[in-house]
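hiii, so i know i said id send this last week but things got crazy w the move. better late than never?? heres the sequnce for the chain we talked about at the cafe, plus the structure i predicted for it. fair warning i was half asleep when i ran it
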Amino acid sequence: MMEQFKLRYSDWEYLAPLLAAIVDTYEQGACFFATDREKVIFKKGTEKFDVPGTEVGTPNQAGGATDQVMRDGKVKTIQFDADVYGVRGNVLAGPLWSDDYNEVLGAWILATPRIHSLVAAFDSFAPLLVEMFPEGGMMYITNLKQIIRRHVSTNFHIDNLQVGDPVDGLPLVREVMDKRKQISRELPAEKYGVPVLAVADPIMDEQGSIIGCFGLLIPKTMAASVREMSENLGKGLTEVSAAMEEMTASASEVAHQQELLNNELDKVSKLASEINQVLVFIKEIADETKMLGLNAAIEAARAGDTGRGFGVVAEEIRRLSDQSKETVVEIRDLIQRIEESIKATLKSSAVTLETTQQQAAATEEVNASTEEMTSLAEQLDHLASEL
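okay and structure toks below
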């Protein structure tokens, strides 16, 4: 509206109260000031917005808005960045004319903040969103130098990040501004007392220039606890699995050795049978030898004195034959006892072998279950990292 009027310098004292009242109607704040040709003669700022370096009595800035409108004699709209007054803003400025409108005697300036839509809406959405996280959180917005907006949930306590604090104390902000993209990173408990997920995103103006950063800090206490439990579970299951594998290997080795023992016992049993056959043959030889001794004795008796010596030999042969038969009986008795012992050992060995094989099979099943539980622990750890 004001760009449609030519304001006179002499009318300024009447216009100043009206313009000061208008400034208070701006929702995001505003600052109105006027100058003569040398210095600021009037200023009205607001609590939400002010232009530093424009106090009454401050000399006009060479090349500034006042200098431009007094030189050109017309109303101008100017945008300024944060590096000029510390904030981004829009300026509507115009000349103050002499009574005859032939000479510019000063200038009027209306400055309003140029606020990004995300910054303007922050106080509306931040209190709602941070309370939706199970463990709470903190949202903040920065300009290029410091925190300008901040909201923390009721269940997340962090006192070392306040409005006005430099951005160098915030995680990721400088990196996000340099790389011009969103970055998220988990931070250890040493940083803020609890493990947190830090997310930051650059804020750009209409021309694509970086003007600040939007950030979020989310506590990850539950996720960290779940991850720690899953890691401990996985470690324990790995140790159990290793022990079960050793038991499986040992059971398999015992089963193998028991099988070898059974095979050897079978061989011994077969050898006993073969010995029995040899004893039968020995007995037959003893029987035949005794018969030959008996025949020799008969022939010696027929021969009389000349066959007496031969009779002694025949008697000795019969005696040795009887001893051989008695020895065969004793050996056969021992072999029978050995065979009975072998049979009992084989029976016991068979039971042991079956039990060992069952143990090996059961151990393998337990090992398979342990591996499955280890896999579940790994999945739990993966899910915890995504919480």
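btw Helices lie at 12-23, 65-72, 82-85, 117-130, 173-179, 189-192, 221-303, 308-386. thought thatd interest u
miss u guys!!
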